Amino acid sequence: MHQAQLSPNQEISGLIGRHGQRCICYPIDNVKTDASVLFALSASEQLAALKEMKERNQELFAIYHSHPDAPALPSVIDEDVADYPQALYLIISLNTQGVLEMRGFQKDGLNIEEVNLII
C-alpha cells in the first residue's frame, strides 16, 4: 500500500513470496507505456524475484498491482492475465477519499472470485 502511495499516478506491481507465516514483498517495475492505467511486470525482474523465492524456499503467495483512478476490482485485462491460479491477486485502489482500499481475488478456472482479507 505504501508503494502505491509513493507512485499515485501509475500502477505499481510486484510479487509476494511466503514461507510459513513470513512474507516478503518483491516490487517489480511496471513496463507498460501507459502505466497510469495498465500494468505489466518486467519479465527480467519477475524471473529474478521467482528465482530468489526458490532460493529462499518460498512459494508465490500473491501478485499485486494498484489502480490509481479505479476501484480495487479486477479489470477485464486483469482477469485475462491472471495466469497463476495458486496465487492471490491483490488490487490496491487510490480512488478513495483518504483511505486506501485493498481487495483480494483468486482465479478458479475461468472465474475470478473475491476472497476475504484478514490483515
In a few lines, what is going on in this structure?
It is built from three helices and six strands.
Q: Can you characterise this structure?
A:
The protein is α+β, with helices and mostly antiparallel strands and 119 residues long. The protein has a single domain, classed as Cytidine Deaminase, domain 2, CATH 3.40.140. The chain has helices at residues 2-6, 43-55, 76-80, and strands at 13-19, 22-28, 59-67, 88-93, 101-108, 111-115. It has a six-stranded mixed β-sheet, covered by helices on one side. Helix 3 links the parallel strand 3 (59-67) and strand 4 (88-93). The two termini are 13 Å apart. The model has no long low-confidence stretch (mean pLDDT 86).
What is Rg?
14 Å
The CATH class is Alpha Beta
| CATH homologous superfamily placement | Cytidine Deaminase, domain 2
- Major β-sheet strand ordering: 2-1-3-4-5-6
What is the terminal separation in angstroms?
13 Å
Q: How many strands, which pairing sense, and closed or not: the largest β-sheet?
A: 6 strands, mixed
Approximate strand percentage: 35-45%
What proportion of the residues is helical, as a percent range? Answer: 10-25%
Poorly predicted regions are none
List the total number of helices: 3
Rounded mean pLDDT score: 86
Secondary-structure-derived class: alpha+beta
